[in-house]
Amino acid sequence: DWTMRAFREEEIAKIRAQVGRGKVICGLSGGVDSAVAAVLIHEAIGDQLTCVFVDHGMLRLDEAKTVVDLFRHHYNIPLVHVDASKQFLGELEGVTDPETKRKTIGRLFIEVFDAEAKKLGGADFLAQGTLYPDVIESVSFTGGPSVTIKSHHNVGGLPERMNMKLVEPLRELFKDEVRKLGRELGLPEIFVGRHPFPGPGLAIRCPGDITREKLDILRKADAVYIDQIRKHGLYDDIWQAFAVLLPVKTVGVMGDGRTYDYVVGLRAVTSTDGMTADFYQFDMKFLGETATRIINEVKGVNRVVYDVTSKPPGTIEWE
Ligand code: XMP
């Protein structure tokens, strides 16, 4: 793709001009965007870049392993893997307001990056995989000076007093362009084709307060759901699919016993840029089979519902 080849060359020149001999740390989230940003920046400045992968305790199943394997073993890009789950989950204890969750997570990310930068003898820049829609949506929904819908942690959620300057080479791109760029950079297809995953992770898929128990249930339910989608060959038709753990318990029956367990909500949408989206029209047989599998395989869940809301009026994530 010639446009992406040209973009790649231009951005490499821009990154070199911005960074000079400075040191950069890049936060990896497990998503496509930060991975593409990291590989591009590495190409531009080599070992002036160190990647930091923060496990905040709200990642999907096996996320950390996937990311660490890709960067350390496939790319040989220096990577620091920080387990900050105690710190994040500790500070989020009892927090139920979505914006407070996002802001808390944004602040902690910066604290962790700052601390890691110090350990590396200082860093001048923080690199992020911010995309064009993130920039717009954190400013306003319509582009005008109206309300903030959500503080994306990699845009509006960052504290102002951060010491590092930002490097955001994907700021003008949409998701499909980032994927093209990722392919151009030789990222494996299985990684490039992944559904988007938000920086605040499972925190915003767990409305209400967040506990380790809830996160464990959510991780398992989500893994079963995604496995079903892959097995049915639907993964690439869907922009994003994930499970949400609702903060309610409902009554059910299993064998001759009464159960009182959590409800899992399933979300799947089609979209081209995440700014608008339509709920995905699964067939009922698929949904029924998936519900049965989740309830049988995930302890603590006795009911599954499907979200049939498009965006607008719903957002893709529940918080
Ligand atoms: P919403 O929920 O706003 O999501 O309709 C639109 C797209 O953005 C992703 N998203 C985020 N990505 N940090 C991110 O990196 C965030 O804080 C964040 N919030 C939402 C969401 O997963 C969807 O793809």
From TrEMBL:
<keyword id="KW-0315">Glutamine amidotransferase</keyword>
<keyword id="KW-0332">GMP biosynthesis</keyword>
<dbReference type="GO" id="GO:0005524">
    <property type="term" value="F:ATP binding"/>
</dbReference>
<comment type="subunit">
    <text>Homodimer.</text>
</comment>
<dbReference type="GO" id="GO:0003921">
    <property type="term" value="F:GMP synthase activity"/>
</dbReference>
<keyword id="KW-0436">Ligase</keyword>
<protein>
    <recommendedName>
        <fullName>GMP synthase [glutamine-hydrolyzing]</fullName>
        <ecNumber>6.3.5.2</ecNumber>
    </recommendedName>
</protein>
<feature type="domain" description="GMPS ATP-PPase">
    <location>
        <begin position="2"/>
        <end position="194"/>
    </location>
</feature>
<keyword id="KW-0547">Nucleotide-binding</keyword>
<comment type="function">
    <text>Catalyzes the synthesis of GMP from XMP.</text>
</comment>
<keyword id="KW-0067">ATP-binding</keyword>
<comment type="pathway">
    <text>Purine metabolism; GMP biosynthesis; GMP from XMP (L-Gln route): step 1/1.</text>
</comment>
<keyword id="KW-0658">Purine biosynthesis</keyword>
<dbReference type="GO" id="GO:0005829">
    <property type="term" value="C:cytosol"/>
</dbReference>
<feature type="binding site">
    <location>
        <begin position="29"/>
        <end position="35"/>
    </location>
    <ligand>
        <name>ATP</name>
    </ligand>
</feature>
